[in-house]
Design a protein that fits this description.
2 copies of one chain form a homodimer.
Chain A: E1 4-10, E2 13-20, E3 23-27, E4 29-32, H1 44-50, E5 55-58, H2 59-64, H3 68-73, H4 77-81, E6 87-90, H5 93-99, E7 104-106, E8 109-113, E9 120-123, H6 125-135, E10 139-141, H7 153-177, E11 184-186, E12 188-189, H8 195-207, E13 213-215, H9 224-234, E14 244-246, H10 252-260, E15 265-268, H11 270-276, E16 279-282, E17 285-288, H12 308-311, H13 315-323, H14 327-353, H15 357-367
Helix pairs in contact in A: 6-7, 7-8, 8-9, 10-14, 10-15, 11-14, 13-14, 14-15
Chain lengths: 372, 372
Amino acid sequence: MFDFKLEATDGLARAGTFTTPHGDIQTPVFMPCGTQATVKTMAPHELEEVGAQIILGNNYHLHIRPGSELIRDMGGLHKWMKWDKPILTDSGGFQVFSLNHKVKIKEDGVQFNSHIDGSKHFFTPESVIQTQVNLGSDIMMVLDECAPGDSDHRYARQAMKRTHEWAKQSVDAFKKLADPEKQTMFPIVQGVIFDDLRAESAKFMASLDTKGVAIGGLSVGESTEDMYRILDVVNPHLPTEKPRYLMGVGKPENIVEGVYRGIDMFDCVHATRLGRHGCFWDYTGRHSIKNAKFAKDETPLLSSLDNFASSGFSKSYIHHLIKANEVLGIRLLSMHNLAFLFDLTAKIRQAVIDGRFEEFRKEFYDSYKIKN
Amino acid sequence: MFDFKLEATDGLARAGTFTTPHGDIQTPVFMPCGTQATVKTMAPHELEEVGAQIILGNNYHLHIRPGSELIRDMGGLHKWMKWDKPILTDSGGFQVFSLNHKVKIKEDGVQFNSHIDGSKHFFTPESVIQTQVNLGSDIMMVLDECAPGDSDHRYARQAMKRTHEWAKQSVDAFKKLADPEKQTMFPIVQGVIFDDLRAESAKFMASLDTKGVAIGGLSVGESTEDMYRILDVVNPHLPTEKPRYLMGVGKPENIVEGVYRGIDMFDCVHATRLGRHGCFWDYTGRHSIKNAKFAKDETPLLSSLDNFASSGFSKSYIHHLIKANEVLGIRLLSMHNLAFLFDLTAKIRQAVIDGRFEEFRKEFYDSYKIKN
């Protein structure tokens, strides 16, 4: 279980299959965020319809509400939310730092107040493994300290060292608490935007006895250039036989560039958040459906995609739904944006297998115009 | 086209079939409200899945945004919103009065400001037929004056007389503007809660050359007792060969009592609005899913209903979704509440056909507890 089979490479780009108790994941893969045990606006069968292979849950949010014990008592996260394909749960380290003001970092863990009711909580490397065992996700993440993108070298190093110490404790906690046939765990490379720290962190995380490695802290305000450079620094130190997961990224162009730099797994709230804000992607770029030019546009969002959101309704109708604040509008755009990313990753995978990824990347930029 | 075949009666209760260009409607029927060209939170295929036979659109809302001409240019309401079963459109008379403060009633129509952008509009009996011809609904409604439930007899009579005059003009406008093979039109009985006015209005509307008759002004603040009494007053004056539509009603118990008093068609926003407020119906009554007793309830909303909202998820999970303000929660409750009303009307219809409606009504109240 949790074997990663590398099926093709093309430059640094990789195509593989990761085996989990809830099914195989073909990489490169984009994983939609089901933060509160639901991918926003979508039903599980719709995720299957558009081709989701694995979704995320969030240990921070589910610990706060309704609590991991309740989900365990209801049969675990898969059964509770009716999703029987793989689930990856983030440890909640990132959310502790991004959603809370009163965070106290201690040597043995992190203290914070709930963003819902202000109640006090304490996460340790072991406690987040325990709560993720309660959730029953296929892939658990370790507790890390996600230092801000503008941290200085001294603080970035301190946070990285703590993250390494916690990662070691997590490996011990995993051995103590988890069944390795049912769950696995990825550590997280940190080091902010400092090349020396990132290289050190990558080597350290690569040395741990885990089935995959994640790269964190690259969606917290640093520039796209920094992100791509850090990937160039990190990837040579990561073992080829483990899947590499770039956390919290991305946009279509980030996925193309991530794969180009050896990444296998991606997640991001952007696809569904864009949908809730009235935006959609196609192979020419990102668009706002509210634009007046769509009011009488009888074409669908993307006719080549065979799902009811992408090809079932006209842009004219969706333009109206979004202007009128109707839920169906954000449902259709969220679903389409996910379908688009799944189509993109499937095309990327095929290009890698066919040994024409470089060509694909050029073609992509010929038609896709990046907006910031 | 637009034939009504009365298939069974049991006391005053009726079971029939109404033929339209977009398919047959088996009555009694509950019609979900698709006010802004979407039944809130739901996709068209989900409406079909739970058994919707006909939905409503609203001429007021669609005239204001995006305009009936745009919808006509996009191929009509059915094609635009991807619903190929029957559609009934309300004239917007009710919305003019309920959504606007600056309403000026004139002999030839009603002037009002848009609740969206304040722009000035004028509805006449003929103009609302024209816009409904643009929309292409199967059943159009006449412009009426929906006087407040606390109007005195003098004002109620004046509004009724105006409504009668407008109904006559509507019949003329219909002959001039509409294709009777594609669309039909119902007039609306008014008269507030005054028995003499309601009887007079029923006789008048019954005398017009239309394929059905509606009863309006019974969901604007009057008591349930007044509503049921008015139905007793009105129905003897309505022709048996035309379907009778009670506008803006109802709750499950209102539907049972409406059918008991000879009503064939119902609509109401209540089912989906309740869903958005975290409530659901089953055959024991109305419940709030937020109630703590549902936090660990592993049973579905109603296992006897075969759709993913009613029987696909536990109350525990839906309790969480609603507490966490997740769209999937309001989707599931809205869809379930509609499924429940369709199940209820199907059971009522079968009871009428089997000549055991009185018994069904008693059984219903044995289990269903009414809350106000």
